[in-house]
Amino acid sequence: MARLAAVGVLMRPKCSSQSTWSQRKYLHAAKSKLAKATDFQPVPQSYTNPVDRLQPHVQVPIIPDSEYGFQPSREEIQDGASLFEPKNTEGEMFKFLGSWPNPHIMPKSDVPEVAFIGKSNVGKSSLLAAIFTLIPSLKVRTSSKPGHTKLMNVFNVNDCFHLVDMPGYGFNMPDHFETSVEAYLKARRNLQRVFMLVDADTGPTEVDYLAVEMMEEASKPYVMVLTKIDLAKQGTLIRNLMAVLKFRDSSKAHSCFPQPFLVSSHSGEGVAFLQTFIAYITGHLNIKSLSGAS
């Protein structure tokens, strides 16, 4: 989209320190060592929806019941997150498949695909590193330099689905954004969902509005994900979450899943919940309490 590219030229970087998520990795190792000796219990935040802890501070429902379609149980969240944990069984396939500038030369596959996209420096690579933290063979390169992802990076998750790390839009976006990212969104048949990331500390920006227009033009289902929730004060987080909902409605985001997700790649909060949604939409998890979410 020409307007999206034009805005990217004008944007300036907002640098922040990069950190990796180690909470679930630590809990996983601790549980393995202590399971026989103790009744080990994971930190409650690891398998919950971050919106639930915010709701008591708001008098009205943050997300109306009619839009709160994805409500897995704690056990289902644990099962969903386990899809991203190697089982050390023969035939497992967790690996980086390669990088491509053009969807027409990307390898064709019959497994579902999910893609992650967002404004430069939104924390996309750090989030993907958190999602794959228990899969050592899937290394996601992170950088303090905004816009370092220039190609579409494809990861194979145990032959269950492919995850595509897409170049960021805005500052330092690649010149081939239109012929790579936009072409991919319009042409990729196996694409099940796009995860559009928004900085929880700053809220949606003008360039995010343009990205929504791009998503709507491609007619591909997508989800809003607020990143870096550990960096935002509680009041700021609630305000920007509400801003995302208002932004979604005012931009007529018809292809957007009504329920946003909140994550922190640093603390790990919300990551398992997001992993569970990915497991569900790729057909690898049943949610008993689910009714009508798509």
Automatic annotation (TrEMBL):
Coiled coil: none annotated. The lineage of its organism: Eukaryota, Metazoa, Spiralia, Lophotrochozoa, Mollusca. Signal peptide: none annotated. It comes from Aplysia californica (California sea hare). The keyword Nucleotide-binding applies. This is GTP-binding protein 8. InterPro entries: EngB_GTPase (IPR052279), G_ENGB_dom (IPR030393), GTP-bd (IPR006073), GTP-bd_ribosome_bio_YsxC (IPR019987), P-loop_NTPase (IPR027417). The keyword Repeat does not apply. PANTHER family: GTP-BINDING PROTEIN 8. Its cofactor is Mg(2+). Residues 110-284 form the EngB-type G domain. Gene3D superfamilies: P-loop containing nucleotide triphosphate hydrolases. Keywords: GTP-binding, Magnesium, Metal-binding, Nucleotide-binding. Belongs to the TRAFAC class TrmE-Era-EngA-EngB-Septin-like GTPase superfamily. EngB GTPase family.
